[in-house]
Fold this sequence. Notes:
Elements: H1 3-14, E1 25-27, E2 34-36, E3 40-45, E4 51-53, E5 64-67, H2 70-79, H3 81-86, H4 96-117, E6 121-123, H5 125-133, E7 139-142, H6 148-158, E8 162-164, H7 169-175, E9 183-186, H8 190-206, E10 211-212
Amino acid sequence: xxxxxxxxxxxxxxxxxxxxxxxxxxxxxxxxxxxxxxxxxxxxxxxxxxxxxxxxxxxxxxxxxxxxxxxxxxxxxxxxxxxxxxxxxxxxxxxxxxxxxxxxxxxxxxxxxxxxxxxxxxxxxxxxxxxxxxxxxxxxxxxxxxxxxxxxxxxxxxxxxxxxxxxxxxxxxxxxxxxxxxxxxxxxxxxxxxxxxxxxxxxxxxxxxxxxxxxxx
Length: 217
């Protein structure tokens, strides 16, 4: 990744939605730059001094924070920056980048299940369109393999709301006990904020970024 591309990605991430107020920051052990916590991934060392991801940020021990960026985490693993930051031995398990990516994907889909249970999720083209018309949407979610025409219509009605479009219709459906789903909308609230924060981190691990509906970034 070139310096210019990295700077552009950083600028895009800083424009992404937050929960409001001053987000707490931590320093990435690779870039040494402070970033909002929702833009980083916390790791700790287990009793055997093996690097363990702590996505919920609840495990005991000193936090080793790495930017939620695939290239940066790959660099941390390759150079074992964890050992330097921990000032002692640290074992990086094989496939750590893939493990983190899978865990973040699972967290995102789990938030959708919780949102449905809380009555904060709409699914289906007409239901989502109605929610958008009444400004009851915080995040628009579209299946990556859904029909382009229907997705374009809802994106146009979303007026720049955050757009997540990297899950398949089957993945979205399975998360909600259905065969497949294409159009979803999250209502404003804590669950949508948590989903967005994990979606931001997941998109970084995919090498992408959260889009704005209607063509806005």
